[in-house]
Write a structure and sequence with these properties.
204 residues; alpha/beta; Lysozyme-like; 6-stranded mixed sheet; 19% helix; 19% strand
């Protein structure tokens, strides 16, 4: 995968991106030996659902969420999850897990004929609600982050949680503009889920 010529080289310290704000999560593990990290999985999350800007997502991923703080949290009580990155509405990028390690974001999943997408993917959460639109700053930050990841990892696929776990997950949902991300990256159609290209194809 080629990166745009005007993109500055990412600054990595191991699997930690220097330009991200680091908020280490205990929810991770080792990847299987010899695995190729070639998939980016895009998610969306907000806690409580539809509420933006608070600390609750970071608290969830670091096992510090007060389960009694909101009625919705009872539905996820005790959950131990994480993603590698979180992109807030204003474009800030937060990193929870060393990208060399296995974050707990995909769950039961399959893509490119491979099960257990946590093993060989990098998870990126966008602050948002499935079905709703995302902010321009998020697309800009996401494109930059994907480009930085390609500088370190052999990424050739991008998919949504809805694609790797169909019927179980619906994020990032119809509000996510896949053509906008593809245009921002300049990556070929083969990198993206075919259904997103068909869904967004011009009507004839």
């Amino acid at each position: 995968m080629k990166t745009p010529p005007d993109t500055a080289q990412a600054s990595w310290r191991g699997g930690w991106l220097s330009t991200a704000r680091h908020c280490p999560s205990p929810n991770f593990g080792p990847r299987p030996a010899g695995v190729a990290i070639d998939l980016i999985v895009i998610h969306s999350i907000s806690l409580p659902p539809g509420v933006y800007g608070g600390p609750q997502v970071e608290q969830l991923f670091t096992n510090q969420l007060d389960w009694n703080a909101h009625p919705y949290f009872e539905q996820i009580r005790g959950m131990e999850v994480s993603s590698h990155f979180f992109v807030r509405r204003g474009g800030e990028v937060v990193q929870f897990v060393d990208a060399d390690a296995r974050a707990w974001h995909a769950g039961h999943s399959c893509w490119r004929g491979r099960p257990n997408c946590n093993d060989d993917s990098i998870g990126i959460e966008l602050e948002g609600l499935e079905g709703e639109r995302f902010e321009p700053e998020q697309y800009q930050a996401l494109a930059q982050l994907c480009t930085q990841l390609v500088q370190r990892y052999p990424v050739v696929h991008v998919a949504g949680h809805e694609h790797i776990a169909p019927g179980r997950k619906q994020d990032p949902g119809p509000g996510f503009d896949w053509p906008r991300l593809q245009a921002g990256l300049g990556w070929p159609d083969t990198c993206f889920p075919q259904e997103t290209l068909l869904r967004n194809a011009p009507k004839r």
